[in-house]
Amino acid sequence: MIRIHRGAEPDELRKVRLERLPELARIARTRPPRSEEIDGYRIAAGPLWRAQNFKCCYCERKIPKLYNDVEHYRPKASATREPGSQDTHGYWWLAFTWTNLLFACPSCNRTGKNDRFPLDAGSTALVAKEAPPGKEKPLLLDPAEHHGIEHIEFVFGVIPARAPSAGAPPRWSARKHWWPRARGGSLTGDWTIRVCGLDSSEHIELYDDHVDKEARPAARDLEEALKRRRDVTAAFDQAMRLLQPGKPFMGLSYDALRLLVPGDALAPWNLAWPEPREAGRSPGRKRRR
Prior knowledge:
The chain is mostly helical. Helices cover 33% and strands 7% of the residues. It is built from 8 helices and 4 strands. It has helices spanning 11-28, 45-51, 106-113, 187-196, 201-228, 232-240, 250-260, 263-266; strands at residues 69-72, 101-104, 152-157, 177-182. The strands form 2 sheets. Strands 1-2 form a two-stranded antiparallel ribbon. Strands 3-4 form a two-stranded antiparallel ribbon. Helix 5 (201-228) runs antiparallel to helix 6 (232-240) and helix 5 (201-228) crosses helix 7 (250-260). The longest helix has 28 residues, at 201-228.
């Protein structure tokens, strides 16, 4: 998961908001608007999809626009806010707000997140027409506000067992896999992994496949260049291309490359992998002495 940049709000979404929001406000005077009554926001699908480099905002897999979801960071019709709040009303007044919309794959949105929006202890849920964040303390990373690589890391090893949560994956055998965990004990990183199902068996298979087909070959080429002491910079630059924001599973590639070719091997060549906060933003080229 990496930080995304939506760009300017599409005029079409603004028109839909001006058209639909008054009707929802009228409904909300007597009861909460239902999910099927909140429509029209999918007009933002194309702009979001392109702004996110055709990737799911959570898992970073490349996805087609058709049949994939315009996701509401703050759920539109109902919201499960545990552990920090028992309130369950949705954020219908943000249903057409550009800064609340993302593009997500069905695995992360429907199977994983759905209407879950966990808040930390001490939070007070927003009420109708109140602007975020108010007194909410979200435990879910916002891809437009947070650089996910700073909160989620990928490791290679046996997946540890833990108490299953909603949508939790079946645990694998003793075979090693690439799987995500909170970086540096990040609470929001841990919650995001669990809420979006980023450690589901489906995702784990995709991670393993990506490393085998993309990261390992790039790392092998770099290792060979280091052994030959020739074309090291070219091989490093080739590996760094996997860390471009438009590449699938950029966060996974970042941790895989750092594990497969440790920084100590690069130091004599005055090269270094970028720090987590700079991954996807920095060329990571030369290390300052």
